[in-house]
């Protein structure tokens, strides 16, 4: 199964992001989406599971939770924006937060910085920001390829 991963669009859905997400069987958005219509546009590619982020307004918060568990093939993905923890120790805190949920992957956003790391057997995956460049960082999305219990996370530059 192929899962497209996107975060921090902030109301901007670039054609390059849409192209990179083509072929996804599911899309996970880790918050700071912008208007709900952005999710509708992503749904033209594949079903979308999204959470709201710290900059999302009431319209998006009315249709998306702050965190969720997503079944993808034979694994479970915890999805959260990631803004509730300080930068130092954030990864460890997220792994601990989802430890009772038996997830294999935690997808998050907020930092605008792509990251793939493993803590306590859980893959933490931040695809980076896909909306507009901030802090001089390049834009990116991500992909999870799931085969049974095996998961491969990849960051995809989109500019």
Mean pLDDT: 95
Q: Helix amount, in percent?
A: 10-25%
Question: Could you state the order of secondary-structure elements as H and E?
Answer: EHEHEHEEHEEEEE
The radius of gyration computed from the alpha-carbon positions, rounded to a whole number of angstroms, is 14 Å
| Name of the CATH architecture | 4-Layer Sandwich
What characteristic shape results from the CA principal axes? globular
CATH homologous superfamily heading: Metallo-dependent phosphatases
CATH class: Alpha Beta
Work out the helix count. 4
How would you characterize the largest beta sheet? 5 strands, mixed
Strand arrangement in the largest pleated sheet: 3-2-1-9-10
What is the number of beta strands?
A: 10
The fraction of residues assigned to DSSP E strands is: 25-35%
The name of the CATH topology is: Purple Acid Phosphatase, chain A, domain 2
Task: Describe this protein's structure.
Helix content is 16%, strand content 33%. It is an alpha/beta fold and 159 residues long. Strands 3-2-1-9-10 form a five-stranded mixed sheet, with helices on one face. The chain is globular, with a radius of gyration of 14 Å. The relative contact order is 0.22. The model has no long low-confidence stretch (mean pLDDT 95).
